[in-house]
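HUMAN: Ready with one sample?

ASSISTANT:
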Amino acid sequence: MTPQSEFLVLAPIRPEAVGPLRAVLAGMTAAPGQADPRNAIVPFGAFPTLHVARFVVLEDETRGDLEAFGQTPGDLPVHLAFLGDCDGPSEALLDDLAARADQGLRTIFGHCEGFGPQTDVAAWMRAHLVRPQAWYVNWVGRTVSQVREEAALHEALSAELRRAVSEGELTPQALHARLRSFVKASDLTLTPPEPTPPAWKARHAWSLVAGIVILLIAAPVLLVLSPILLAVLRLHETRDPEIQTPSDRRRQARIAAGEDHDVSNPFSAIGTIKPGAFRFALVMAVLWLINFGAEHIYTRGRLARVGTIHFARWVVIDGGQRVFFVSNYDGSLESYMDDFINKAAFGLNLAFSNGVGYPTTSFLLFQGAKREEHFKAFLRRRQQFTDVWYKAYPGLTAFDLARNSEIRQGLENPELTGAPLRAWLAKI
């Protein structure tokens, strides 16, 4: 198995360079926000390990909401975020990007603070890497090449199955045998998985053991302190001001113009953490818990009950003042929000309720996102226009990827019979 990894290069943009930078990024797209895989600046399609990537200019329009908490918002920079999810170590991909897209990256990063004509691109990106507090992968170990090979397999098997049926070959066993013979005689490629790197297995095992130990130690402590902690939480929940400023319609229309060009969409958002040490500690604890679940529990196609997310991450930035959230999901934004509200509203409350402007929760898990219109307005107002977004396998949803893997498994199983065999044929 080849595990995935991620990268986020985050750097402040020179104030006068925001507009020119957006113009450069727009030149990389074939449609609003949608990367041309062969664009001359950063040709994402030339990097075979890259699943998804994006450039986002982070312009936070909600900082003034801190005034409702009696605080004067401090000035924070407008950031450029360059991030992606890939197979194998992200350090190798960044070095490859720096070597093969040096001039294009210079054109982009030249708008950022501290980047000059003589700057080493690879070293500069490494110096500006920011690690997420929580990171989710839909299916750990499913590579870009596997996705593409299995999609081609499904297409070929589907055509051959139609031919077989039209020729009168109808029994499941005969169809299975014919399809297996067809693939053996074809030029289809089905690359066996690589061995899992020992270093990754060791880190993964250590993370699991350390996480369990932390939970075992923390559980009795939290149980003893729970009356105090719950009282403090309810005090914050009842006193924190609600902010229901609607999102600007023109801004939202511009964001929407970059969506629904594929079966999948990007989501980028930035928001301010509610003031105080209690809220910050709660954010860090919750994100640690989400990351533990994403790394060790939700590794096979679903985050809680939601199966439409390919990759997602939460990143605390600006010295703990703000959180940057990104995801790559199937369907429209409206269906994405509805899916979470209906299936995992408690998870939304956990992940986002410590943000300024979030609808009031009850004991952290309840209400909040269930106030649907307020929650959607909260997200839309913090959503950013994703200037450039790349996906290595357009037209394929997370469901398609899982189905194609199941088709491959069934093809490679010569003992498949009965109901499982009929279910396998139905997938094709």
